[in-house]
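Record 1 of the preview.
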Amino acid sequence: MLASLRSALLPSSDPASHDRGFSGSWLLVGLAVVLACGARARADEAARQRGEAIYRQSCADCHGAEGQGVESEYASPLAGDASIGELSEVIADTMPEADPESCVGEDAAAVAAYIHHAFYSEAAQIRNRPPRIELSRLTASQLRQSLADLYAHFHQIPSVSDARGVEASYYNGRRRKKENEKIDRVDPLIDFDFGHESPGEGIEPKEFAISWRGGLKIDETGTYEIIVRSTCSFVMDFGAGGRELINNHVQSGMKTEFRRQVRLTAGRVYPFNIEFVQRERKTEQPPARISLSWIPPDGQEQIVPTRHLIPGWVPATFSLAATLPPDDRSYGYERGIAVNRQWDESTTAAALAFAQVATSELWPQYERAHRDDANENRARLKNFLTEILRVAFRGTLNDATARVYVDAQVEATRDDREAIRRVLLLGLKSPRFLYPRLDAEATPSQQVANRLALVLHDSLPSEKWLLERIDAGKLTEEPGIREAARRMLDDYRTRGKVRSMLHAWLDLEHVDDLSKSEERFPQFDEAIVSDLRQSLDAMLEAIVWSEASDYRQLLQADWTYTTDRLADFYGEAWQPAAESGPPLRRSVSETAKRAGVLTHPLLMSGLAYYDATSPIHRGVFLIRYVLGRTLRPPSEAFTPLSPDLHPDLTTRQRVALQTSPESCQVCHSKINALGFSLENYDAVGRFRTEERDRPIDPSGGYTTRQGERVDFQGAQELAAFLVESEDAHRAFVNRAFQFFVKQPPAAFGADTLDRLTAQFRENGYNIRDLLLEIAVIAAKRPLAADQVST
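->
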């Protein structure tokens, strides 16, 4: 047989067969490769079998037969992302604990190959236990967004605009008549001290009025304190026309400061209107002054910045004020899995709060719009409630559902307001609303729209253009799905979610209280921290929503956003690029001192101690968040060596000393090498070249998942490596998928993460394109109830 195969593949001695011979030689090469691969596969299998025998004899008692862990011995499962070579080194150095010398060399390599293939690697975990899409309730964020969009269904969602500021009309005299209007303009912010002077040409200083109309763009969910300081009378509506927040129409006494707390939701624009009047008085007239400030969550009081102000008319909106319990984040993203008394009570409060605004605002509006409709058997009210539940339940109500949720409740009371409360309490507490994946009875287009809204907006389909496409069945083919997703991507709600995702990627939740040693950093105060937060957020927004939307700029941008205060503290590299402009503006470029967000002082100071840097914190951050690798928890509590105990050592030397034991080096050989590369940045993120009169050594390195060792010198080389790193690309794509979909990528196919990562690179690392692909993947797989894991 081999002879006949050889004769068939070897070139003939006949000159006319030279071309066939050339092809035959390549076939021989191919055969050799196949045979070599087969031999390698057999050798690998033999090594794994040998490793399995050693594992079951020496390791299974402590780690479990399938690596699941043993509670009384080593409870953590054997799962991770180290290469076979790294596993082999760890096993040779430390296992088994009672006699580590008994499993070294080829034995250690065989055990490593077995456990890596059998249950340790990501591929093995997916093979052994394929992830499934989990059934979950709305998270707190999804509940807030869904109720806001349920309200917005009867109004509209504001379109994204680059216009900023507040639309202002200035009137001569206190009466706001068209003939009295002298100035119509956009003010960049509201912070005026007119004194006893006229606010503009043609306006008498003793008596005038100003109307400011606009919207407040919110990037972070939380409690905001709105502060108006005014020496004159004014009324401020907020959230909707006629919804008063502050009423100082009749000014009394010497009070000039007014504060109100409001709970606002990220990705929303809240309309406001301020009517300001300076009245002529017989007594001494006070100087005319007014300012609009706020205190954002975890921030300092400031005049509301121009970038948060949208000029002109903005549609009314709703913000849930009820406190909701935190969601599970053990998987690295929010999951709605806890169903307990606290959750039940909070959803009841949310339903009642929405019912209140529905009765006071939505129902009167609906009645006016449908006053000519027939109203037999209270048809108008039933139609109103059916429309609400059609949006809330993410699908058309069948006759039986409408009978239970609408007709029976309306017929139970003659009071329209009570009927609305009954229907909404029943409907908004229903699993049809609280569990968005329970939509197996919905049409395919409806299911796709439900996924798109949940992924991109943390919400439900409510806009009329989208509902029309659902009714027309236009979301069953990929072109229609993709076009709808692209339109939904360009939205303030998506922008708010992207900002939250990037904060999670940078692990900024821990950066709550950035206090530093007053002795070492006397000027590093709350005002600096507030400016740094704004600086980082402005940088993230500028990169993601630029035309290129280039992920690589997150790691390599040589500019940021700065203020005069930051420039004074951080030096020349933080000077504004333009002499004039808003308080927060783009900085000069400084390639030698910047590496995108990696070297931003908010991140660097958050990954540092009170008075010193922390290479360990920085290294852990880079491994877990930027590179997406796993680290086992430390075996014992870690307390850094005090610099006072070793005054002659640099931070790098102290860390190397403390983590030198062999048991520490299993993890710290990875952690330290990454963290040291950022040592040029001190505990508040200022660039430095020396520590304790010694030159900084920022050399570092990293071993990839494939076992390749990469060395770099300082932040810029680290960033250059990360830009090309498959591990970093995969980590970012995985973070984005899990944050937006709130499910593991493998639940949508074992190769989903690989395909998305490859596509991300092919598309020039475009972040917006990545989000579009994620939304389409999630939307194209609507699942029936029996396909969802509970």
